Hints:
Blueprint: H1 15-25, H2 33-45, H3 60-69, E1 76-82, E2 88-95, E3 98-108, E4 111-115, E5 119-120, E6 138-139, H4 142-156, E7 170-173, H5 183-194, E8 206-210, H6 217-224, E9 227-231, H7 237-243, H8 252-260, E10 271-277, H9 285-294, E11 300-306, H10 320-332
Parallel strand pairs: 4-7, 7-8, 8-9, 9-10, 10-11
Antiparallel strand pairs: 1-2, 2-3, 3-4, 5-6
Helix pairs in contact: 1-2, 4-5, 9-10
Bound molecules: S-adenosyl-L-homocysteine.
Amino acid sequence: MLAAGSSPNLAGFTRPELAAALGQAGATAPDKVRMRADQVWRWIHRHGVTDFAAMTNIAKEQRSALADRFALLRPDIARRQESVDGVIKWLIAFGPNIEAETVFIPDVGGGGALCISSQVGCTLNCSFCHTGTQALVRNLTTAEIVAQAQVARDDLGEWTTANGERRLTNVVFMGMGEPLYNLDAVASAVDVLADNEGMAISRRRITVSTAGVVPQLRALGERTGAMLAISLHATNDELRNELVPLNRRYPLAELMAAARAYPGLSNSKRVTFEYVMLKGVNDSPAEARALVRLLAGIPAKINLIPFNPWPGAPYECSDPATIQTFAAIVNKAGYASPIRTPRGRDILAACGQLRSESVKVRASARPRTAGASA
Ligand code: SAH
């Protein structure tokens, strides 16, 4: 994130980083650092202020001392689009050529869900995913992940809205990138988003979706307590190798074993399996039955996602009747199998349609920006 001059941007600091920064800056008496950090934290993460002057329970000279040393910034919004169905998509610029998309989907999960990106671009190359056509530029930092929720809260104008009346109630890491290839930043971001003195988005309302980075699944559960979603899309290795090339490294048997072992699973905390419906590819009744067999013993629900087309995509979406038949088989076996209504298709904001124009630039050709995040 670009900071003004060289002032550290407090908006993206974790709680320990904030306390450390205030302590080191010397603007606060050592015995007051903790209390001050708690106050500043609440202003930033509960009230969303971007101006130290608004921190009215802190003495005036303290506020200006903070303003002299620190910044409170949001990244630039390169583009904002609103769909006919109320979905909002922001293209956020974290720096020159570092852009990622964030999508707000109203009326889901008791409020609305914010779909957050964890990387600019992606390494996975899933054959049906638009983001997969863009090479990885880089991981997003904790601050940049958190900033996506801050931008959304600003736009929705609900920083101080009571919990029960908020539109943004859920967060899904289902934007650009593979969250488990950036687990440290994602886990710290979950800590910030879930903080009770901040945005207070319950960990039960935060879902991290992975294409199946098996060795990181346990750590995800232990470090975040977040809900797990797995992008399955196929019931045999041959097809999954083709759709989700990561499967060649972590085949289905290993993936299902890791899902079964995800910390804290129960009937009230289930794994969501995402299954994109591709016409004539993975949508037969036999595959629905194979899916049921694969899930045996896992507290699970299945999200059937009608394929969202993008320019040049080599697939078509299954027919509605085919999807219904598939859903009925899975449902009959006792699994919830909602068909995800495509949202925001008109602005390419639906699942798998996100992409930015950012491209990887050789380090030597990259402009050196003061304060650019690590
Ligand atoms: N890399 C992570 C996070 C991305 S989540 C993961 O794979 O889970 C985005 C979800 O949208 C994934 O389930 C992905 O498989 C799905 N998706 C990708 N392209 C899609 C498309 N064109 N139509 C519908 N769903 C798609």
